[in-house]
Each structure stands twice: as structure tokens, then as C-alpha cells.
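Standup notes
- DV: blocked on the single-chain target, sequence here:
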Amino acid sequence: MLYQTETGFIDVVIEPQFAQFQFGSQLASIRSSDLTSLQRMTNSVRGEIDFRQQDSAFPFTGFAYLDDLARQLKTMSVITQADRANENFSRKPAAFKFLGFEEDDYYGESEEWQGALYPDEVFDFQFSAGRYLEYFRVWPLFHVPAELKSHFL
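- DV (later): unblocked, structure below
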């Protein structure tokens, strides 16, 4: 789905490689004609921006969940009309940034979990014993963060 921003255009697309990341909402790729459009979307676009120099129309791709993007753009059409790509156009993530909240029903307190995970750890972490994450989201990273590298030293 194509949208005009103050500085250019964005195209909201669900890539096959991110189709499995549905944590209350669908993770989508936000292709953009300019970097500024993505940088201004601080309430929805997170993780790293993928730059593809060979793509002259949409060289920048950010990542957001459709419900967050709908609030940012102030339209629900992004949820129902996001395009589905037949093949991936962004790079394969080396890791994921994550954010999760665990709610304590008895005391009404919540605990925040955030950090980085390797791609094969995402679902194991979300469903690991001992915690129930009521909110859990991941965003692609195209490098391995130091915190993950240090686990193997």
C-alpha cells in the first residue's frame, strides 16, 4: 500500500521472511523513497534501516508492526491493505532487537524485557518457561550486537 509523506513516499509490504512474526500484529517492511520519512516515524519504525542502493524508487526499508503503523499514519487501511510480496527484497536479519512486557496479575506490576536475539532464538525466548510476555515484538538487525557476541566469549 503506497502512502505519501511530507518528504516522499512509503510502501507498506509484508515480506515472506517476516510473515511468521505475528505478535498481536504483523511485522511489515516499510519501503521508503527517502530516509527522512522513516526517521520521522519514531512511534512505529524500529530496528535498523536496510539500504539498497540499486533500488532507485525505494532504497530505504524500515520495519514496523501494522497496528503501530496504523496509529502513526492515522489510518486503519494499512492493516487491511498492506501488500504481500512474493519474494524478499530486504536482507536476511543477522539478529533481532526485542521488547517484551511481563505482567504480574497479583500485584499489577509489569517487568520489561529487552535485548537482542539470534533469529533461531525468537520463538524459544517468547515461549520459554517461567514467564508470560503479554507484549512481545521483534525488529530486524543486520549486524550481530555486541551483547550477543559476548555470550560466546
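- Follow-up: The chain has two domains: 2-84, 95-152.
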